[in-house]
């Protein structure tokens, strides 16, 4: 497998990755950021997996059940056909909450003939530290480790348990199941119960997806991306994860390997804005509550990221016993970037707060909290916007005056002014408006480089940076402003490589990147569209979509040469930007059709 040819299943509590051959190669239970019980993704020898093995006569195809997170892997050999329907149960309970147990189900559907398979069931608890031992009991198969920490998991199945553990041939005569759980079940599962779980979960996702509007173009891509973003939300706290994995490298064999199973304020806020635009109000509401809960003190600065259960300390460790994805070490858990200062997060968060308040001003139970946060953000920005920071790309070297950070400081004040008007708090407006203008003037004076005819990465720098393209999206500058148009062209000339974008080209702590950061290409496409180069933008977009995996999923990066997916997967950033582009193209077509209809009248 040369690509990230995986599907994601999940239930807003945890997630698992299933390969296109039906092997579960990554799964953490009971939660997203728990230690893994399958990590073949990060070490093919010792990581552990849950594989369904068939002989060479079978062809294997994989798809999602439309508008759901139920993954179907079909095995066919002439008349002998069966399917695996992989899912993590999630559905509404009678009391109004959701049932999302820490377990996954592999429902085996007998389609025709006498198909046969073997199971390679090889859990390796606690990131494969120490030895995991597996025992067949009367009602289940139990695996446990006494390594660095005691841990267990339980497998229930309708098939012969000894045949499963020993990897013997199993013939499928009727539907069957595997239920892998973190906890021992109080009641014995049955095929019928597992079928009910499957149908309930399917209905949950169909109901959730039905709230996503229909668009004229790219409907299936928008739907799949929206479901993927939902799968990366953590129901218990409202947090949104950057990705479901850790340490998938930006470049094979290099060391840019990070743990993304956390909530970055920037990534999460951008994702929430898009999910909110698609009409999924509850996800946005819960995320804002997550933010409210994080800021108890009025003078407390926001961290750039938090644990999904609101943890503030995310100490970084390396797992030296794991060889890494395709041999790319180190494997990291935790993320030291939580200590960094990135001034852009205040603007991104204020943008989301304003969006939600403007859409649902009559339905905001935490309005007073949000007004308090707004005032706190203005105070922090007013005292710190002139300071250098690490920037959106988390440079681990010296701080700089990054243009993107300054623009987002301006956004923080601009949206705070709008929020003040919504709440009729006019006594703040004069002071805040002066600050907004001061920041804007500063950016125009220092970020614009007349020699390269563009806004550059940081004050006084000649270097291009794809993040600068967002100054138009956030309303800092008009798309048709000659300064923005020339910036788009300068960034294209400097950072585009065969239609894919570098984040930047100036060397960072690790040298020149050899892969494209996927979201940057989406930003570039959006910018082309906004400045009027719509056909070119559409052509780039269709080409970029062709680089997704077989299920339409994207990771963080795309290799410039091979076009293989790299980096953590699936990536919220990539999918939120895909949705934004797709909606723009779809709206454009709708507007053109309306104009054509009017002209025919």
UniProtKB/TrEMBL annotation:
Signal peptide: none annotated. One of its GO terms (molecular function) is hydrolase activity, hydrolyzing O-glycosyl compounds. Pfam families: Glyco_hydro_15, TREH_N. It comes from the Bacteria. Residues 8-135 form the Trehalase-like N-terminal domain. This is Glycoside hydrolase. Gene3D superfamilies: 1.50.10.10. Keywords: Hydrolase. GO terms for biological process: carbohydrate metabolic process. Residues 218-582 form the GH15-like domain.
